[in-house]
């Protein structure tokens, strides 16, 4: 049954390639003209441009070929990336569309492949960070001739080592508790491993991620004083809830002024509630 399914998928793939090869490639001038038409709202130009670049998706997708994932599924995800590239492309950049689109195609495919192979799914922003980590790890491995250290990856992608370690730990494939313990043949991990702290790594990760994204949201939408009050009043920066008086002393204002600042900040947050939820749970 498995072999028949693989053959069927291969037939679909070969048929798809034959159809795509019939579509002529675009010259630079034809490409520019299509984007001018797209800017004018011509949807048929969008379709033409996408179809003319399907060959590019196939070429990129073949680099991600894997026995456990259908190549046609990979290509379909690449096509989604191609469509996003059409939406985002800026003709004034004076580069060929394919040069720009290949990054979107790779991003879409890499995200799909990583999520398919992992039991624990990450938020999209963390998937993107994980993709950057994998790319940096590959580049640095070639550069140093050895697996790179966490702090070296952190410098390469301008990210904290703690965030990288956290994402990589959560993204790693889970190990069955029934697996045999190598140092004690015949015993399983469930028999020899003890969770003395009753810690839930997934919950801890999600809480940390939510706090970080909330702080980023506050930085974009609140003033310095408003942000300082909310961070300390709602334990987003440390474990203590600061009183109005304590915050007032720190900021050089009265406790009543701090209360008014908190009220104003909370009203701003309520007005941006949907944006905050999207930011935290994207």
Keywords:
disordered N terminus; mainly alpha; 0% strand; Four Helix Bundle (Hemerythrin (Met), subunit A); Arc Repressor Mutant, subunit A
CATH class of the largest domain: Mainly Alpha
* Gross morphology: elongated
* CATH topology (fold) name of the largest domain: Four Helix Bundle (Hemerythrin (Met), subunit A)
Would you tell me the overall average pLDDT?
77
Q: Uncertain spans, ≥5 residues at pLDDT below 50?
A: 1-8
Number of separate helices: 15
How much beta, percentage-wise?
under 5%
Major β-sheet annotation: none
Task: Report the span from N to C terminus.
Answer: 38 Å
Proportion of helical residues: over 70%
SS elements, strand count: 0
CATH architecture of the largest domain, by name, is Up-down Bundle
Compressed to H and E, one letter per element, the order equals HHHHHHHHHHHHHHH
How many independent structural domains?
3
What class would the helix/strand composition place it in?
Answer: mainly alpha
Q: Whole-number radius of gyration?
A: 25 Å
